[in-house]
Design brief:
By secondary structure, the protein is mostly helical. Helix 1 packs antiparallel against helix 15 and helix 3 packs across helix 10. The N and C termini lie far apart (67 Å). The chain has 15 helices and two strands. Helix content is 77%, strand content 3%. Strands 1-2 form a two-stranded antiparallel sheet. Strand 1 and strand 2 form a beta hairpin.
Length: 307
């Protein structure tokens, strides 16, 4: 009699399965990038090394000029406000890296408040996240045209937006001049700060709700107070969420910067497509460099916390 062979099913390794699932997860983004973004990026880089003109019979005529567009960008061209591009990049980078930690910290603070147990929490969440569902830009424009913004600005600027408030801070807090002026500017722009924290707050709230209550129970059994629980349980478990939030906020700030407006002015208003393309490439490299700096900083902070 012939013995029947047993069929053995080969199972995929767990590491291979995770890699495959990750690839399937990002596949729609990869397809969208190749279809909608890869060609425009290639054309932008190509145009930045050429003088772009419209031919007599229509179409685009390219005349290779090397890096002349980049040289003219920082030696001859100026912004719509008639100051050099170097100053524009310096001001925008300083503003972005100043607002980045403020937005992230404020978003975490709001998420912690929204995650606490209190009566009417569901209604508060609906009111808070309604602008995100309806469209943040729509709500922002509506509040700017209503009395809500004037009330906020008057409340913030009543004490800190005038010379008397700054003088009081100088005399009674003994803070350095730069710190006082920075606090005055931040509080004066509190409305713009709030309008940029919606998505980040939702991300942090999702991260807080994903933390198992058992971690907090163990910490309390060990005698940890609220301060210890926050810094030794909540913050470490939100590390990956914080990195994602920082990256999202950085990209969002760059997209809303005045550099993007200058790219449009050069390329379409002044018909300097080569200069506009060169500015786009420099702008893209600046964003990648800023992302690299932020990721290195977060990695160093993570290593210090582990030690």
């Amino acid at each position: 009699m012939k013995s029947k062979g047993l069929k053995v099913k080969k199972r995929m390794k767990y590491s291979t399965s995770r890699k495959l699932n990750g690839f399937i997860f990002v596949l729609p983004w990869l397809l969208g990038f190749v279809i909608f973004f890869a060609v425009p990026i290639k054309n932008t880089i190509l145009y930045s090394f050429n003088k772009v003109e419209v031919g007599d019979g229509g179409g685009i005529v390219l005349t290779f000029s090397g890096i002349q567009n980049y040289i003219d960008l920082f030696t001859k061209e100026v912004t719509t406000l008639s100051y050099p591009l170097q100053r524009l990049f310096a001001d925008e980078n300083a503003s972005i890296f100043t607002n980045l930690p403020l937005i992230v910290i404020f978003s975490l603070f709001l998420a912690i408040l929204a995650n606490r147990q209190f009566k009417g929490r569901g209604i508060v969440r609906v009111i808070f996240f309604l602008p995100i569902v309806l469209g943040l830009q729509l709500i922002t424009e509506w509040t700017q045209n209503s009395t809500g913004r004037s009330l906020i600005e008057s409340a913030a600027g009543g004490m800190f937006g005038n010379r008397m408030g700054v003088r009081l801070l100088f005399e009674y807090t003994f803070l350095p001049r730069n710190v006082v002026l920075f606090l005055s500017e931040v509080i004066g722009n509190i409305f713009q700060l709030i309008t940029r924290t919606g998505v980040q707050t939702m991300i942090f709230l999702a991260g807080l709700q994903s933390i198992s209550p058992s971690h907090y129970e163990v910490a309390k059994i060990e005698g940890a107070n609220s301060y210890d629980v926050f810094w030794k349980v909540t913050i470490p478990l939100l590390a990956n969420v914080t990195v994602f939030t920082v990256i999202y906020t950085l990209i969002d700030l760059f997209l809303g910067s005045s550099i993007a407006v200058e790219v449009y002015n050069f390329a379409f208003t002044q018909s300097k497509i080569g200069i506009g393309s060169a500015l786009s490439v420099v702008y893209m490299l600046n964003v990648l460099l800023a992302l690299g700096v932020v990721l290195i900083f977060l990695k160093v902070v993570n290593l210090i916390e582990k030690k």
